[in-house]
């Protein structure tokens, strides 16, 4: 099992996290997206570094990880963000869960928001509207419409060779788009609530409530809005209920930004700009050859 670990201007704590994950997998591929190339201390014999220099952004880094996994015969690939705290035994538990569901192309845990302590939202396959769940660890595994990248385990032989992460999206909604594309290939995605990880979404304040604002920058608000529209356009036919639900979520999140966040006018302008440009953007998925 390989773990591509994407870094961007990594802090001093990243090396410790890399050493910790290196004890759980066969190989760690650090894909460094820092434009000027970051420096790393000695990390161990099963850790290598590929300097991607932010080509294709997060999508480009994940595509490099997948290329490396295929070229070196790895059967599974587990994804991590540089700030994810990795609990002991996580990779083994994900691999065991994958073996019990050989049809699954991608599986992942539930997550707790590291700032709020609340469970993260998982969109399931339940019903026309694709019911949103905030699972507790005692719930059984269920099929998810999509999962976030961090701590997701991909079974390489279940990923179509031509399918890549869309480098045109840069960062936001990259995981949603990839999972929905997987589903277009009739692959399954499973959430395993008995496995829990702590992961930060946005820049929420410590102890903030479940519905607290994300406090993303105007640039991220722009990308989120633009990429959401692109995803709506691509998958409306296959998942109309989810798209309609996500339009409502987008509207409520935009309203929350205007009411609760600082720099609200700049952020509202970025949201509206992204919304307009999302309708004009190319609809096809993009990746480097």
From TrEMBL:
A GO molecular-function annotation: glycosyltransferase activity
Q: Which UniProt keywords apply?
A: Glycosyltransferase, Transferase
Q: Which InterPro entries match?
A: Glyco_trans_2-like, Nucleotide-diphossugar_trans
Q: Which residues form the Glycosyltransferase 2-like domain?
A: 19-123
Superkingdom of origin:
Bacteria
Instruction: Quote any Pfam family the record assigns.
Output: Glycos_transf_2
Is Mitochondrion set as a keyword in this record? no
For this chain, the family text in UniProt reads:
Belongs to the glycosyltransferase 2 family.
Protein name, per record: Glycosyltransferase 2-like domain-containing protein
Q: Give the species this sequence originates from.
A: Sphaerotilus natans subsp. natans DSM 6575
């Amino acid at each position: 099992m390989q773990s591509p670990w994407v870094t961007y201007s990594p802090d001093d704590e990243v090396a410790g996290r890399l050493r910790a994950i290196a004890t759980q997998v066969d190989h760690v591929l650090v894909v460094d997206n820092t434009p000027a190339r970051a420096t790393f201390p000695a990390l161990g014999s099963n850790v290598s570094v590929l300097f991607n220099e932010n080509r294709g952004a997060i999508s480009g880094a994940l595509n490099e990880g997948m290329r490396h996994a295929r070229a070196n015969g790895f059967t599974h690939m587990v994804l991590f963000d540089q700030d994810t705290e990795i609990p002991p035994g996580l990779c083994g538990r994900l691999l065991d869960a994958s073996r019990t569901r050989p049809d699954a192309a991608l599986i992942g845990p539930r997550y707790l928001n590291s700032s709020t302590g609340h469970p993260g939202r998982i969109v399931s396959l339940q019903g026309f509207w694709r019911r949103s769940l905030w699972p507790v660890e005692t719930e059984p595994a269920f099929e998810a419409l999509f999962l976030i990248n961090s701590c997701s385990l991909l079974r390489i032989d279940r990923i179509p060779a031509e399918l890549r992460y869309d480098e045109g999206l840069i960062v936001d909604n990259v995981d949603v788009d990839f999972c929905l594309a997987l589903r277009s290939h009739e692959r399954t995605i499973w959430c395993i609530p008995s496995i829990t990880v702590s992961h930060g979404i946005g820049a929420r304040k410590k102890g903030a409530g479940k519905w607290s604002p994300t406090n993303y920058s105007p640039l991220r608000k722009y990308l989120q809005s633009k990429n959401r529209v692109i995803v709506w356009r691509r998958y409306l036919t296959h998942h109309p209920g989810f798209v309609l639900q996500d339009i409502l979520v987008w509207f409520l999140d935009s309203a929350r930004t205007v009411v609760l966040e600082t720099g609200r006018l700049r952020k509202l302008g970025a949201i509206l700009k992204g919304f307009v440009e999302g309708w004009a953007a190319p609809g096809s998925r993009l990746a480097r050859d």
